[in-house]
Amino acid sequence: METTTEYTVRDGDRCTAVELAGAALRAEGHRVEAVDGRLVVTGGARVLTALLGALVPPRRQYQRYDLELSEAPGQAVLTLRPADHGAAVAGGIIGANRRRAAWQRTTTLLETTLHEGGVLLHRTDRIDTSGITLHDR
Q1: Which of 108, 93, 89, 94 minimizes the C-alpha distance to 43?
Q2: Model confidence over 95-129: pLDDT tens digits?
């Protein structure tokens, strides 16, 4: 199951929120690029992670996230979602645990940064349940 985190900010502060988020992620060592109206955030070494898997130090394990801004009346929403890593860099159970830990660090970093910047109204965590089927018994 994939998790998505939404940060609701004041509409007038949306540019500030994007700038704060980008600066905080860069300060943590991530690469941040604007692509097709969203920010693509990457960290770690993809090739190294694909070759060595669990032997890669946790902070060097490859991570990739998308950060998108959407607008609603009176507010804006920054949505952070993990991007597909591909099977080659999955890393098994150790990789999954590291990705979860990195996700927690990243979501907490963004929440703290936006809160301290005075632009955060609300944080919402969502779990994608679209692939789960329900059976009657």
Answers
A1: 89
A2: 778 888 889 999 999 999 999 999 999 999 998 76
Contact 40, 66 (CB under 8 A): yes
Assess contact for 21 and 15: CB atoms under 8 A: no
pLDDT in tens, 64-103: 999 999 988 888 999 999 886 555 455 677 777 888 888 9
Give burial (CB, 10 Å; 0-12/13-18/19+) of 111: middle
Closest CA to 18 of 4, 1, 37, 5: 37
Handedness of CA 82, 87, 90, 92 (dihedral sign): positive
Listing DSSP states for 35-95 in one string gives ETTEEEEEESBHHHHHHHGGGS-GGGB-EEEEEEEEEETTEEEEEEEEPP--GGG--HHHH
